[in-house]
Amino acid sequence: MASFLRLSNASGRQGRCVLVSIMSELIIEKITDYLNELLPSMGLELFDVQFRREGHGWVLRVFIDRDGGVTLDHCSDVSREVGQYLDVEDIIDHAYNLEISSPGLERPLRSVDDFARFKGDKAKVRLHEAIDGEKSFVGLIKTVENSTIVLELESGAPLEFTFEMINKARLVF
């Protein structure tokens, strides 16, 4: 760890930031491993784990998902399991708040499988490079084959692109 502290300026602040970032990543990794074992037995899947400082405290956010949506009972059950795991394993050595939720109605679309799962739903897609002078598009997810996605734009015109062309995408409610 001393090598990280050598990165610091005279005040030592930069080194602490690097060390905190590494510790946060290790915590996220351990919790992710645990959740990837736990959640399938509950009929759930892991969407994301975040651990960050907010205001004067720390927040551990776990986003869970499943076909058909996530209920309050699902969140409560996962919260109880994760809370017990964290108490026993003592991974986090300071105060934090634990939040369990679904990705939400306007969830990010992060894989080809996400696009296939939400076929027929409305999505907003931002591409890395422009098509006909535009980078952002909103439309219905019409087809998904391999990594090729077709949106039916609000004008009714089809827009075809590959998953690799996407910078950011999310559902639109």
Automatic annotation (TrEMBL):
Keyword Lipid metabolism listed: no
Subcellular location: Cytoplasm
Domain Ribosome maturation factor RimP C-terminal: 109-173
Keywords in alphabetical order: Cytoplasm, Ribosome biogenesis
Main location: cytoplasm
CDD domains noted in UniProt: YlxS_C
Keyword Nucleotidyltransferase attributed: no
Domain Ribosome maturation factor RimP N-terminal: 35-106
GO CC field: cytosol
GO biological process: ribosomal small subunit assembly; translation
Listed HAMAP family: RimP
Similarity field: Belongs to the RimP family.
Protein's name according to its UniProt entry: Ribosome maturation factor RimP
Organism: Desulforhopalus singaporensis
